[in-house]
C-alpha cells in the first residue's frame, strides 16, 4: 500500500525534477507539488508548463509544510540549498536528493539538517543530454534503477515510503553505500562522460581535419560520443570535482589499458586485439538481456520499413 | 540518367553486401546480383534470405561477366580476394570495395588487378554493431555519406556511373584522397571505437565493481560505449592494424587532452572543465543540423506517450 506524501517540495526545476513531477501525476499521486528554482526565468517556464501546483520564489518557502523535500540542483549547489532550508524543515519530513555523486552530497548537506528530519540520499540512474524544465517527461524513470543511500540510523519506515515513491515513478530501487555508489558510477557514467568530452574536444581541435568534416562524417561512431558530450556543463563540472578520487582512479586504469591496446596496434598483435574485442561483446549481451538497452541496431535510429 | 550495371558481384555477404543487395532491389535496379562468401554456412544463409539472384562457391566464379565487382570482406582479406579474382575480371569492369580503411586496401588490391578494369575504392559511412547476411536492410545507406577514392587516372565515366549507383542506394557521395580519408576516419570512427572497447574492457576487469553491477547500472552513459564495442572483432582488428599511423596519432592527441582534463579535476579547476564542456556542445548541434543524428533525447530510445 503506497501512502502518498501530502506535499512534495522540488528544489530545482530541471530535467530530473520536472520528470519527477510528470511521473507523479501519471501515477495519480495525491501529493501537492511545490517547486522552486534559482532564476525567475526557470520558475516562470515551469509555471507555464504547469507540472507543479505552486511555484514559489525561494527554497525556504518551498519546503514549508512539505513531508518530502527533493534536492534537484547541481551537486555543487546542494550544500548551500541545505543551509537555506535547514531551519524551515517540518519535523518528521524526509529530505532526499537526486545528485549524481553521493559522498560529497552527504558531507555537504547533512550538517545543515536538523535531527528531526530523515535524510535519505538518492540517485535515479536516468537522464538525457537535455536539461531545464521543458526537458522533463513522465517516462524518464521507467525500468531504470534508483539508488538510495541509507545509513545505520535511517528510519526503516521512512526508507520504505521513499522506496515506494520511486517505484511509483517507474523505477527499480536498490540501496548501496555512498563510497560504492561513487565508484560504480565512476565506471558506468563519470569516466565514460569525461572520455567522450575529451574525444569530442580532440576532434574539434585538429587542424588537418575540419569541424565540418567531423560533423559530416560523424555517423561512423563519433556521433554517439557527441551526444554524451552534449550534457550540461555545470552538472558535469560538479560531478568531476566532487567525485574526484573514484573518477581519477578509473581514468588511470583506462589509460593503462589504452596504452596496452596502442602497443598491440603498434606491434601488429592482431590476436590480442581480436581477443579483447571478443570479450567486450559479452558485456553488451548482458545489458540487453537485463533490459537496460534495445537490441535494435544503431539504437533503433534507423527505421526499417 | 542512371545506367544500371548488368551484373553486380558481391564478394562477401555480410552486413554491408546484403544491405547493398536489399537497397538495389528497393531502387528497382535491373542488375543481376551474384554473391559469394567464404563459408558454405554464410552462402546458404544468404540463399535462404534470397537477396542475391545467384550465390556461387568462389569469388573467381562470382566475378565472371560482372561489370561491377564489390569487395565486401574485412580489410585484411581484400588482398587475397583481389589475387583470386584478378585473372577472371571482365575487361572494362569496375572494381570497388567498401573497406573502412583506404590506403592499405589500395596497396593490397591494386597490384592484382589487370589494367583493363577500373578500380575505384569506396567506403560507405554506414553500419550497425550487427554483422552477417541477416543483419542487412535496404535503408542502411539512406542519407549517409559514401566516400569514393579515385586517383588522377580514374576514368570519369566509370566514376560517374559508380556515383549514380551509390546515390540510387540512398547515399550522398563525395570523393577524397586515401590519406585524408584514413585520417578523417581515424577521428570520426577508428579512435572512438578503440576508446569504447578500452572503457568496456576496464569495466569488465575491475574487482571492486562486478560485471553485474556494470550491466545493471549501465544506462548512465556506459551502455552507449558497449554498443560501439559490440562491433565485429575481425573487422576492427583489421581496421586498427591497417590504419595504424592515423589511429595512433589521434590516440596520442587524445591521451594528451585526457591528461589535461585529469589535471583540471585533480587541481579543482572548475572553470577549465566548464569551458571545455561548453565548447563540445557546439559540435553536437552541428551534427543535428547536418541531419546526421536525431535531436530526440537519448537517441529516441525513450518513447514518450
Ligand atoms: N541530467 C541527468 O542526466 C541526471 C541524471 C541523474 C541525476 N542528475 C542529477 O540531478 C541534479 C539535477 O540535474 P538536472 O539534469 O535536472 O539539471 P538541470 O536540468 O540543469 O536543472 C538544474 C536546476 O537546478 C537549479 N539550480 C542550479 N544552480 C543552482 C543553485 N546554485 N542554487 C539553486 N538552484 C540551482 C536550476 O535553476 P535555474 O534554471 O533557475 O538556474 C535548475 O532548476 C544534478 O545534481 C544532477 O547531478 C542528473
Ligand atoms: N559493419 C560496419 O559498420 C561497416 C561500415 C562500413 C564499412 N565496413 C567494411 O565493410 C566490409 C565488410 O563488413 P561487414 O560489416 O559487411 O562484415 P560482415 O558482416 O562480418 O561480413 C563479412 C563477409 O566477408 C566474408 N569474409 C570474411 N573473411 C573472408 C576472407 N578471408 N575471404 C573471403 N571472404 C571473407 C565473410 O564470409 P563468411 O561469413 O563466410 O566468413 C562475410 O560474408 C569490411 O571491410 C568493413 O571494414 C563495415
TrEMBL record, chains A, B:
Residues 6-295 form the Prephenate/arogenate dehydrogenase domain. InterPro entries: 6-PGluconate_DH-like_C_sf (IPR008927), NAD(P)-bd_dom_sf (IPR036291), PDH_C (IPR046825), PDH_N (IPR046826), Preph/Arog_dehydrog (IPR050812), Prephen_DH (IPR003099). Keywords: Amino-acid biosynthesis, Aromatic amino acid biosynthesis, NAD, Oxidoreductase, Tyrosine biosynthesis. Gene3D superfamilies: 6-phosphogluconate dehydrogenase C-terminal like domain, NAD(P)-binding Rossmann-like Domain. The lineage of its organism: Bacteria, Pseudomonadati, Pseudomonadota, Alphaproteobacteria, Rhodobacterales. It comes from Meinhardsimonia xiamenensis. PROSITE patterns: PDH_ADH. The keyword Amino-acid biosynthesis applies. One of its GO terms (molecular function) is NAD+ binding. It is an enzyme of class 1 (oxidoreductase). PANTHER family: PREPHENATE DEHYDROGENASE, PREPHENATE DEHYDROGENASE [NADP(+)]. Signal peptide: none annotated. One of its GO terms (biological process) is tyrosine biosynthetic process. Coiled coil: none annotated. Its EC number is 1.3.1.12. It catalyses: prephenate + NAD(+) = 3-(4-hydroxyphenyl)pyruvate + CO2 + NADH. It holds the Pfam family PDH_C. Transmembrane segments: none annotated. This is prephenate dehydrogenase. Belongs to the prephenate/arogenate dehydrogenase family. It comes from the Bacteria. Pathway: Amino-acid biosynthesis; L-tyrosine biosynthesis; (4-hydroxyphenyl)pyruvate from prephenate (NAD(+) route): step 1/1.
